[in-house]
Specification:
The complex is a heterotrimer of chains A (260), B (313) and C (63). Chain A is an all-alpha fold. Chain A has helices spanning 20-31, 34-37, 52-74, 78-81, 83-112, 121-142, 148-163, 175-204, 214-234, and one strand at 41-43. Chain A has 9 helices and 1 strand, in the order ααβααααααα. Chain A is globular, with a radius of gyration of 24 Å. In chain B, helix 3 packs across helix 8 and helix 6 (124-135) crosses helix 8. The chains are: A mainly alpha (260), B mainly alpha (313), C alpha+beta (63). Strand 1 (41-43) of chain A pairs antiparallel with strand 1 (13-15) of chain B.
């Protein structure tokens, strides 16, 4: 007797090997199972204030987008003639200053930690490109102010862009075009890059510390190898310091071979 | 090639609430942004208009307009993307500015002088002057505008606001220029330059380039330390912090060979393009990627972990 | 900027005057920008130097 399928339930019968939905889901879950996407624990070496500058960058971006959305709701002229408009414009500008401030401190921290190690090159690359894309995003904002600053910045910046032929299709003195880039296109690019950056960090984990010396590195490597060999023979997860009760161990994929 | 011997972490984990951390971060940053807003607000220097320019600096306005008519202004001789009157900048044989072509055509004589003047009603003397100018051979036009430009160096402003120059052979140019000055001072030129092709317009290229050819924007910029040789790219109007992240872009313009080069912009853009690529590729750069090992700031960052490992070992 | 806006939500400090600039050879920078860069360096140093909370919890996780 046939039964009406429950919405959301897996399709009855074996899903087709070619189902794009199944494949997308499987790839996503394999790379980022929920406990890796949102872990409730971090390695014990995450023990420095330098680590908060990444999340501070995200927080700044959220405040930029929130204040920017208010400005977008009321249109580009609003902030020039109302006090509340000026308030949100100011918040937007200071959030941008904070964004670049914390992002650069985050960059300095990640450089001195050589955070690209262990298969994390793409984390560095997406972060670097985010910084670079944020610059024209800010530029399009500056030339969208519709005040003297915009007049000066646009008539100056055009020369650099024209010299490379970019001015032929990206005209900083065209307010309509610059406003569209600033409110939609470039924020989408920044948010997309930041999302990729964060997902890569979640996938590969926060970079471990440098080994202090080769001797200790050798000991640690041998201990790690022995633990993994022992675990493999018992068909159980690798032996390691048990987490306090209530702390879920992230998926073992975090400890697998680093993937670039 | 230095080996990346970073092993996957096989050590301990401790509870860490990422979502709470994000919420706290958003709260702190929002509070900081609001605090800075309350303390300092943000700058909003009013934009200049062609009307203001023509009223406060009439001789500069007329000098610029003459250069536009003559084809010797910065915009007139710029080249792509505005016209074909200049070669543009290049790096060796790579001439991207030229190759990408004229995408925003501006004929300075027509767009800034002739067409706006043609729209002025009820002034037959002005229309006759324009016709006389257009009918004259190119050599004569050039003679008139060159003489007039030279005379403007000794110009004065009359009681009725007109620009007065010593007597000379200028043809109909003074009538045209004073007609344009009157149009500008009335505010009509701002509108004419903006909406010349359509009613709804968001492209301010024409009026902006016209003003930039003159001295008003640069005079205001110099007051606010925004000029190129004042490292202006990094600065904001007033005493507000500016775009600190542009420090390296602006630094190149202050040193040779960029400073005196006709291709300074192209050179700086290429240098910064290369440096940006290198920045993206830091993990691949021998030496640069090893500096964090050689200068062990990491020992401070991870000191708690190292201490624990040493006491454990 | 409306005068109403200034009255209601005016800034505590008025920064709308030309910047003070530091000159040194060919180097020129506004005092505000120097302050920002200086603050970044100080914050970076403090971020590395200051102890991060939760040391006891991490010690417990290691044992």
């Amino acid at each position: 007797m046939s039964v009406a399928p429950t919405p959301g339930a897996p399709a009855t019968g074996a899903p087709k090997k070619t189902s794009w939905t199944t494949r997308t889901r499987e790839v996503a879950v394999e790379n980022l199972p929920p406990e890796k996407l949102l872990p409730d624990s971090q390695p014990v070496y995450v023990a420095s204030w330098i680590y908060v500058f990444g999340v501070a960058s995200i927080a700044s971006l959220i405040v930029i987008i929130a204040s920017g959305s208010i400005l977008a709701l009321k249109g580009p002229a609003w902030w020039h003639y109302t006090g509340i408009g000026l308030f949100f414009n100011s918040t937007h500008l200071w959030a941008v200053e904070l964004f670049f401030f914390v992002m650069v401190v985050h960059l300095w921290g990640k450089y001195w930690m050589a955070a690209w190690r262990g298969g994390r090159k793409r984390v560095w690359v997406t972060g670097a490109i985010t910084f670079i894309v944020a610059i024209p995003c800010a530029l399009t904002g500056y030339v969208s102010q519709q005040n003297f600053d915009s007049q000066w910045i646009s008539t100056q910046a055009k020369d650099g862009l024209n010299s490379m032929g970019i001015g032929a299709f990206f005209n900083v003195t065209n307010f309509g075009q610059m406003y569209s880039y600033h409110v939609l296109l470039l924020p989408l690019a920044v948010v997309g890059l930041v999302t990729a950056h964060i997902l890569l960090v979640r996938r590969h984990g926060v970079v471990p510390p440098f080994e202090l010396d080769t001797a200790r590195a050798g000991d640690a490597a041998r201990a790690g190898d022995a633990a993994r060999a022992g675990a493999a023979s018992q068909s159980s997860p690798p032996e390691r310091t048990p987490a306090p009760s209530g702390v879920e161990r992230p998926s073992s994929a975090a400890d697998g071979a680093p993937r670039s | 090639m230095s080996r990346d011997d970073t092993k996957p972490w096989g050590g301990a984990y401790a509870p860490y609430d990422l979502v709470k951390e994000l919420c706290i971060a958003v709260g702190v940053i929002a509070l900081l942004a609001v605090l800075l807003t309350v303390l300092f607000s943000s700058p909003d220097d009013k934009p200049s208009t062609v009307a203001q320019w023509s009223r406060t600096m009439p001789v500069d306005f007329v000098t610029t307009a003459t250069a536009e008519l003559e084809g010797t202004s910065t915009t007139a001789a710029y080249g792509p993307p505005y016209n074909h009157n200049g070669e543009g900048q290049h790096i060796a044989f790579v001439e991207l500015q030229k190759w990408l072509g004229v995408s925003h055509p501006i004929n300075t004589a027509n767009d800034y002088v002739i067409d706006p003047l043609r729209s002025v009603p009820g002034n037959p003397a002005l229309q006759s002057a324009i016709s006389t100018y257009r009918a004259a051979p190119a050599k004569t036009q050039k003679e008139w505008t060159e003489n007039y430009s030279k005379a403007l160096e000794k110009a004065t402003v009359g009681p009725n606001g007109a620009v007065i120059v010593p007597a000379g052979s200028y043809g109909p140019v003074p009538v045209m220029m004073n007609g344009l000055l009157a149009l500008a001072q009335s505010g009509g030129l701002d509108g004419a330059l903006l909406t010349s092709s359509q009613f709804y317009q968001t492209d301010y290229t024409k009026p902006l380039l016209f003003m930039a050819d003159g001295g008003l924007l640069a005079a205001r910029a110099e007051e606010q330390h925004l000029l190129g040789d004042q490292w202006g790219m990094m600065n904001e109007t007033g005493s507000y912090p500016g775009q600190v992240w542009l420090w390296l872009y602006t630094l190149w313009y202050q040193v040779e060979p960029f400073k005196a080069s006709a291709n300074a912009d192209a050179l700086v853009m290429v240098v910064m393009g290369v440096l940006s690529l290198l920045f993206i590729c830091v993990p691949l750069l021998p030496g640069v990627r090893s500096i964090p090992r050689w200068i062990p700031i990491y020992k401070l960052i991870w000191r708690e972990q190292y201490r624990a490992e040493q006491s454990g070992a | 900027m409306s005068s109403v806006g200034t009255a209601v939500l005016g800034a505590v400090f008025n920064l709308n005057h030309p910047a003070h600039v530091v000159h040194w050879h060919f180097f020129q920078m506004s005092v505000s920008n120097i302050l920002v860069i200086g603050l970044m360096l100080v914050v970076f140093a403090l971020a590395i130097a200051l102890p991060f909370p939760g040391a006891a919890r991490r010690r417990e996780s290691r044992s």
